[in-house]
Each structure stands twice: as C-alpha cells, then as structure tokens.
C-alpha cells in the first residue's frame, strides 16, 4: 500500500517482468544513482545507452535526497517526443549533440537465482514516484565482456522511470528552470545524503563510463551548483569521485541489500 501511496505503480496481477525475461534472469538499466551504487548480486555491468529519451533533474525527492517538508531533486528520463513539447532553456544545446536522443548509463545482469530479491530491492529503492518499464538497451561492448567497436545487439532492460504523470514530476515550468533546480539541489538533503553529492556523483559516474563527460543538462547543473556552493562544491566533487571509484571496486557479494559494504 505504501508503494501505491507514493505513486509507484503495482500491477494488479502481480509482476510481469518474467514475460520480458523468460529465462528468469534480469537486466536493469541505471541512468542515475544505479551508475555508481549498483544493485546487489549483479554479475555483469555493461556501459551503453537507451534511445528516445532525455535525462533531467525534474523529479522531486522526498526521501533519498530531500524530505516531504523540503523536497530535493533527482533524475528521471523523459520520452523525447514529450520533452520536445515542454519549455527547456537548454534545448538548443541538446539538439546540437551528435548523441541526441541517447541516454548513457550502465546495465546490470542479475542471475535468475537472485532476480526476485533484486526486484524487491529496486522496488523499495525506487518507490518515490518511479515505476518499472522495459526498453531496448544498446551496449557498447559485447555482453560477454569482449570489446566490440560496433557494440552488441540491443537487449531488453528494465528501467525505473518517474513519468510526467507521477506525483513527484515537476509540472510547474518555473520549477524546471535550471537555476531553480540547482538551488534546490544545493539545499536538498535526505536519507541518502546531500543533493549536491548526488549530482556530482552522477557526473563522475557518467565520466567513468568512458565517455569523458556527462550530458549537457548534468554539466550545466554542476556549474550552477558549484557557483552556489563555491569552495564547498569542489571538496564535495572530489569526495564524490573517490566514492564512485571505490564503490565499483567492491565485489557485488560484499554489498548488502541496502547498498552498504558488508566488510568495513
């Protein structure tokens, strides 16, 4: 019932994910915190992208990066056809990129033996306005881990999306203005930490995929938050880079269901 109250969609007949993954295993695509805070029990982490979406900090957070009294901001992906109907001050920058329509991130393969457990974990982690969807993911390396200059064939991935119809989506255009978003991110703080930490770790996580840079929306917000936080921002960004590097060096079996290290 809590999931429904928070806007998380629960299928009346139960989960339908096995219709997409008949072998019982699970592929999950991460475009936000999953990039640097992977789910437990994964045995493959593959960089790549999904098409036809844009990534935006247009989702309010009343738990992980904010509170009900002072919501923070986290990312969601938005279908590009819908995004094009909205007023976005940096839309011209998005359209100038060769990667237009691509949202880069990382996909994780969960073996069948742990798929239900990980689905439970993700449902709880993404409860605040997100719902599970399925979309083709385009890997940049072969799914067996061998380099491939052209990438492998697309594979279906489950992805959690805060759709525009969910209660946490920023419907007010003024709340989607970049400077307003940056100010809220800078002030935000929730169960998982500061909003600025989330932003900086996303930037470093995207750079770590091998692209060399994050997308224009993320880099624009980083500049704005740095300006707001001045000297504090630089220290937090350096700390975020260290945390991202360290988290990806920790074997999956040493991470518990809450994403914490089991060995100090």
TrEMBL record:
Protein keywords: Coiled coil, Lyase
Top-rank taxon, per record: Eukaryota
Coiled coil stretches, renumbered: 218-248
Annotated TM spans: none
GO terms of biological process kind: glutathione catabolic process
Cited PANTHER family: CATION TRANSPORT PROTEIN CHAC-RELATED (PTHR12192), GLUTATHIONE-SPECIFIC GAMMA-GLUTAMYLCYCLOTRANSFERASE 2 (PTHR12192:SF2)
Protein's recorded name: glutathione-specific gamma-glutamylcyclotransferase
Organism (species): Penicillium rubens (strain ATCC 28089 / DSM 1075 / NRRL 1951 / Wisconsin 54-1255) (Penicillium chrysogenum)
EC number per UniProt: 4.3.2.7
One example GO MF annotation: glutathione specific gamma-glutamylcyclotransferase activity
Enzyme superclass (EC): lyase
Cross-referenced InterPro entries: ChaC (IPR006840), GGCT-like (IPR013024), GGCT-like_sf (IPR036568)
Gene Ontology CC entries for this record: cytoplasm
Pfam families: ChaC (PF04752)
């Amino acid at each position: 019932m809590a999931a429904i109250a928070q806007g998380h969609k629960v299928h009346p007949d139960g989960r339908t994910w096995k219709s997409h993954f008949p072998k019982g295993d699970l592929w999950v695509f991460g475009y936000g915190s999953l990039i640097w805070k992977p789910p437990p029990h994964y045995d493959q982490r593959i960089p790549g992208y999904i098409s036809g979406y844009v990534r935006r900090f247009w989702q309010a957070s009343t738990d992980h990066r904010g509170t009900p009294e002072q919501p923070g901001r986290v990312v969601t992906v938005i279908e590009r056809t819908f995004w094009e109907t909205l007023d976005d001050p940096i839309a011209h920058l998005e359209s100038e990129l060769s990667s237009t329509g691509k949202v880069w991130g990382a996909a994780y393969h969960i073996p069948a033996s742990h798929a239900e457990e990980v689905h439970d974990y993700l449902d709880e982690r993404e409860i605040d306005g997100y719902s599970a969807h399925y979309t083709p993911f385009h890997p940049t390396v072969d799914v067996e881990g061998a380099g491939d200059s052209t990438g492998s064939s697309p594979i279906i991935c489950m992805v959690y999306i805060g759709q525009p119809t969910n209660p946490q989506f920023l419907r007010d255009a003024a709340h989607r203005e970049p400077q307003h978003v940056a100010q809220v991110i800078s002030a935000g703080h929730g169960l998982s930490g500061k909003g600025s930490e989330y932003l900086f770790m996303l930037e470093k996580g995207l750079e770590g995929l091998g692209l060399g840079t994050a997308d224009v929306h993320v880099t624009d917000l980083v500049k704005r938050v740095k300006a707001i936080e001045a000297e504090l921002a630089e220290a937090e960004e350096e700390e975020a880079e260290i945390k991202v590097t360290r988290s990806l060096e920790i074997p999956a079996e040493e991470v518990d269901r809450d994403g914490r290290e089991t060995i100090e």
